[in-house]
From TrEMBL:
Single GO cellular component term: plasma membrane
Organism: Candidatus Afipia apatlaquensis
Protein's recorded name: Phospholipid carrier-dependent glycosyltransferase
Stretches that traverse the bilayer: 58-75, 87-106, 112-129, 182-203, 223-249, 261-280, 286-306, 318-340
A GO BP entry: lipopolysaccharide biosynthetic process
Length: 438
């Protein structure tokens, strides 16, 4: 099994802290408060670990994998209401095996949870619109789903529902629904404020502003380069659905009607994505909530272009989907097992450090939240310190630092022995340095 990558180790360590120390609202990672956002995914990981017996790759990734499957089923179900069975199945596959989702298909990060709860709230709301009336119970239900979403990654992703539904109400002049939308959005706002009040310490606002990419403005050239890259990445990562979806309007047969849900889907998927593209410091993964909406629209377009001069696009779409599905199957069943050590670099690094510490025990310290490697080091507790404090640590000790900090460690401890016991090449390229008397 592939070892942890990206932010997986951090989420797993938070779950481990929740289980070990009961720090549900304010967890710690190696002695550092984790306060940039609520921790829904680690809560779920901890819940799974209670059943499986431990926090590991399986328990960490299971919630995200379930979220992907459930979202794909929602995509298929919504598409089937207004399209053929083949179109609905294609829509589910277009979502699940888009390049954007393939990156996160089995990754313990909250983006897939955000996508699930956002799209579920959209469907609950649309069911009311389709029935002719969105009642207060339905608005509150949407609000509760969005509150759960906000516990995964903060309030920003609520923008997909808020902006998409607001745009639809404005376009269709459904002003009578504005009070319901307002009450709906108060629920995730209240949940976020309650969490913030529960964990707040002076100075936390700087962390939250930084997490929301509001603390500093990039230079114009850097902004243009990065955000253009985000736009191009989105186009590639949403293939082939993003090419098929617009044809719903261009290739419409005069004898057919565009499904009523198409407009709100387009607004839900498009308005906030535009904001993401222009937001300083954004990333293409922040636009993942648009993926199910685009997949549904692509499913509608599949039926719309049948028998038209664009029919050839159906064959290309099926071909691309088959390639993407085959890629995932080969990756999971051939490539990763054949190159197991390459995909287990973080695990191997952490276990190498663990063996060195167990052979010569001493308190362990780190300077970098290299959780993907340190998660696998089960040789006792580890605490993070500022690099400037490396010269004041009591000996004997183990210092687990990025390789480039080893010379700094030697300079700060001129009268002590600094022996490099382990060097690793994965992630932060950690070195385990034994600090002793000369």
């Amino acid at each position: 099994m592939r070892s942890f990558i990206w932010e997986e180790g951090t989420n797993a360590e938070i779950a481990r802290d929740i289980l070990s120390n009961g720090n549900l609202l304010q967890p710690e990672v190696y002695g550092i408060r984790w306060n940039e956002k609520p921790s829904l995914l680690p809560w779920l990981i901890a819940g799974v670990a209670k059943i499986t017996g431990q926090v590991n790759e399986f328990s960490a990734r299971l919630p995200a994998m379930i979220a992907v499957v459930v979202t794909a089923l929602l995509v298929q179900s919504l598409t089937r209401r207004n399209a053929s069975l083949n179109a609905s199945l294609l829509a589910g596959l277009l979502f699940m095996f888009s390049p954007m989702l393939l990156q996160k298909l089995a990754i313990a990060e909250p983006d897939t949870l955000v996508t699930l709860f956002s799209f579920a709230a959209f469907i609950v709301w649309w069911d009311g619109v389709e029935a002719g009336h969105v009642g207060w119970q339905r608005w509150i239900g949407c609000g509760l789903l969005l509150a759960i979403l906000a516990m995964a990654k903060g309030p920003q992703p609520v923008g997909y529902f808020a902006l998409g539904v607001s745009a639809y109400l404005a376009v269709t002049r459904r002003w009578r629904d504005l009070p319901g939308l307002f009450v709906c959005l108060l629920i995730p706002a209240g949940a976020t404020i309650a969490w913030a009040a529960a964990v707040y310490r002076p100075g936390d606002e700087a962390t939250w502003l930084s997490y929301a990419r509001l603390r500093s403005a990039p230079g114009l050239s850097d902004y243009a380069f990065r955000n253009t890259a985000v736009l191009l990445s989105l186009v590639v990562e949403l293939m082939p659905a993003i090419l098929l979806a617009p044809l719903l309007w261009r290739a419409q047969d005069p004898g057919k009607t565009i499904p009523p849900v198409a407009l709100p889907l387009a607004l839900y998927g498009g308005v906030c994505t535009i904001a993401v593209v222009f937001w300083p410091g954004s990333n293409s993964r922040h636009a993942m909530p648009c993926a199910p909406a685009i997949a549904v629209l692509a499913g509608f377009a599949w039926d719309a272009i049948a028998g038209t001069k664009q029919t050839w696009l159906r064959r290309i779409t099926v071909g691309v989907v088959c390639v993407l599905v085959a890629f995932q199957i080969v990756l999971a069943n051939v490539v990763i097992p054949s190159f197991a050590d390459s995909f287990a670099g973080s695990r191997i690094a952490g276990q190498s450090i663990e063996r060195a510490i167990r052979a010569n025990p001493a308190p362990a310290f780190c300077t970098d939240l290299a959780t993907n490697q340190l998660f696998y080091m089960n040789a006792g507790p580890i605490r993070c310190v500022d690099p400037a404090d490396l010269g004041s640590i009591a000996i004997p000790a183990w210092l687990i630092v990025p390789r480039e900090q080893v010379p700094l460690l030697a300079r700060l401890n001129p009268d002590r022995s600094t022996r490099v016991a382990v060097e690793t090449d994965s992630g932060s390229r950690l070195s385990a340095v034994r600090l002793d008397k000369r």
